[in-house]
């Protein structure tokens, strides 16, 4: 007969393994358990005993053992007659509980025994050096969904929150701009469902590391039933071939993938992987959400910084509007403002001037294409004010001046076209000026051309006519229709003998250049590609009352 090293119950030595496998429920010798151990010493099998030379140093009892300690009697034995499982290498004696200890249901103490009064109360541990070095934005990262602001997906009635609380976490792609909470939501998901959480970054993790993580996740799932969530930040930086490595494990359910991206996943994430994941779009934080985040940070971390009265409601709202929906930027600015407020000569104006502006324009991302698109459409809509605004945003963000000038050359023919042919000359001259002069002086040439294009009359006749001709080529056989023989080139005598160009009428030889001559293939003689009108015929209902 031996005592189980886990529950201290009496079990036959032959049944000890089966007893442990059953969770310490079966194969218990109830008769011997009632009699208690002989000589007050539990009979533990030798293969469960740790050699004295390898026994660890004594450690303070953890709070998990409080109930077990409290169930011991004044003789140092537990209520079932066995010694408590917590022992030290030097002594098996236990401190007796206070006589005033009252037990509930003969097992639970109503309060902690006085013998443990020397143990410090449970409290929040002091931050270590790494935590102290972390920026304010990292320290204020929410731990629950209730602390996540501005995202209805994880709100009280949010779709994503409902899936998570029902323990049905799908593989997903979180798409949103910087500072909207993609990483935070992924970490809260892992904490909520109790899964193993592994965080990788596509800029530093390769295929070999991912395959290793998949093998570990498969082993963890098989042995313990615990799922693994892999959070891949900046997943759009993985090449399409690198993204292939996720297909098998995600489809088999070996891992739950949460990918975060600031780019449109339709263009940056492989279709096969995208079809195996659900895409959730995180909205840009409103100014009120950022204000709430900053106030929470000021309440929690403010005593550590002790900011002056300069950091008030007005400054917080200024920082929130300055951050442009980026919570991380707002918190970093608040941390800087609290530090600057301690200076002797500090004023609100000095603090505002000292803040470094974080550009929200990415020359290789969606902002790059969205801004030039807004600029083009503003010129097309004859709004010089909007055109100048988007032009200024691109210039301030360091956009290539030649890229902007090239787009204006296209606008001159696409949107102004036949209404003012001189605009094409102006646009090409602007490109040459930007190429020869360079920035920052070339910004003046760009503004000149942008305003001229926006203020010019518009005509899309040539642009639409080309579109009509291109559409005709899609018809069967149209692209290969024979060229009329009188329009063909005849560089050789053989071609001339075959009649190439023989009946061609050279227009400059005739009055006003007018002749009776067909130029289209026989099958297209009735086709008209160039329309008479400069613009369309539709009427905007919103403009009816203003006409």
Automatic annotation (TrEMBL):
Region annotation Disordered: residue ranges?
Answer: 34-142
The Gene Ontology terms for molecular function here are: ATP binding; ATP hydrolysis activity; DNA binding; enzyme activator activity; single-stranded DNA helicase activity; zinc ion binding
Which intervals hold domain UBZ4-type? Answer: 1-29
Which Gene Ontology terms of cellular component type are present?
nucleus
Q: Enumerate the SUPFAM superfamilies for this protein.
A: P-loop containing nucleoside triphosphate hydrolases, post-AAA+ oligomerization domain-like
Q: Where is the composition biased (Polar residues)?
A: 83-93, 112-122
So which domain of life are we looking at? Eukaryota
According to its UniProt entry, the function of this protein is described as: Functions as a modulator for initiation or reinitiation events during DNA polymerase delta-mediated DNA synthesis. Has an intrinsic ATPase activity that functions as a sensor of DNA damage or of arrested replication forks and regulates the extent of DNA synthesis.
Record protein name field = UBZ4-type domain-containing protein
Q: Which organism is it from?
A: Letharia lupina
């Amino acid at each position: 007969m031996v005592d189980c090293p886990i529950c201290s119950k009496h079990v036959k030595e032959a049944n000890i393994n089966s007893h442990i496998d059953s969770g310490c429920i079966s194969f218990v010798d109830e008769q011997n358990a009632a009699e208690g151990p002989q000589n007050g010493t539990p009979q533990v099998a030798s293969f469960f005993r740790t050699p004295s030379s390898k026994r660890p140093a004594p450690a303070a009892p953890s709070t998990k053992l409080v109930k077990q300690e409290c169930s011991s009697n004044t003789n140092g034995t537990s209520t079932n007659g066995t010694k408590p499982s917590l022992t030290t290498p030097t002594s098996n004696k236990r401190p007796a509980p206070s006589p005033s200890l009252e037990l509930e249901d003969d097992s639970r103490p109503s309060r902690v025994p006085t013998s443990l009064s020397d143990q410090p109360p449970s409290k929040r541990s002091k931050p270590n050096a790494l935590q102290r070095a972390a920026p304010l934005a990292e320290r204020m990262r929410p731990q629950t969904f209730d602390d996540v602001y501005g995202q209805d997906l994880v709100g009280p009635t949010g779709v994503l929150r409902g899936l998570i609380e029902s323990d049905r976490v799908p593989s997903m792609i979180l798409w949103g701009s910087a500072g909207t909470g993609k990483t935070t939501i992924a970490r809260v998901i892992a904490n909520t469902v109790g899964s193993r959480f592994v965080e990788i970054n596509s800029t530093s993790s390769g295929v070999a590391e991912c395959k290793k993580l998949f093998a570990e996740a498969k082993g963890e799932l098989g042995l313990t039933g615990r799922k693994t969530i892999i959070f891949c930040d900046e997943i759009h930086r993985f090449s399409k071939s690198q993204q292939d490595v996720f297909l098998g494990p995600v489809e088999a359910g070996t891992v739950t993938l949460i990918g975060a991206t600031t780019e449109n996943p339709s263009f940056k994430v492989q279709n096969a992987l995208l079809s195996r994941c659900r895409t959730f779009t995180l909205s840009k934080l409103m100014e009120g959400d950022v204000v709430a985040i900053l106030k929470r940070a000021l309440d929690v971390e403010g005593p550590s910084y002790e900011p002056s009265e300069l950091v008030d409601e007005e400054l917080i709202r200024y920082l929130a509007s300055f951050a442009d929906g980026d919570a991380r930027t707002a918190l970093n600015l608040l941390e800087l403002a609290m530090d600057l407020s301690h200076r002797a000569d500090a004023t609100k104006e000095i603090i505002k001037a000292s803040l470094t502006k974080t550009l929200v324009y990415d020359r290789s991302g969606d902002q790059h294409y969205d801004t030039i698109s807004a600029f083009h459409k503003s010129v097309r809509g004859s709004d010089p004010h909007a055109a100048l605004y988007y032009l200024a945003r691109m210039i301030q963000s360091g956009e290539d001046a030649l890229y902007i000038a090239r787009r204006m050359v296209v606008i001159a023919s696409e949107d102004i076209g036949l209404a003012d042919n001189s605009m094409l000359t102006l646009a090409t001259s602007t490109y040459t000026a930007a190429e020869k002069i360079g920035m920052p002086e070339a910004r003046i040439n760009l503004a000149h051309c942008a305003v001229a294009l926006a203020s010019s009359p518009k005509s899309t006749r040539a642009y639409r006519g080309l579109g009509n001709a291109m559409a005709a080529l899609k018809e069967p056989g149209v692209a290969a229709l024979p060229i009329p023989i009188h329009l063909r080139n005849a560089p050789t005598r053989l071609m001339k003998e075959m009649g190439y160009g023989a009946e061609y009428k050279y227009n400059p030889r005739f009055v006003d250049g007018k002749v009776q001559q067909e130029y289209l293939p026989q099958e297209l003689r009735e086709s008209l590609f160039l329309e008479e009108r400069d613009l369309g015929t539709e009427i905007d209902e919103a403009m009816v009352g203003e006409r």
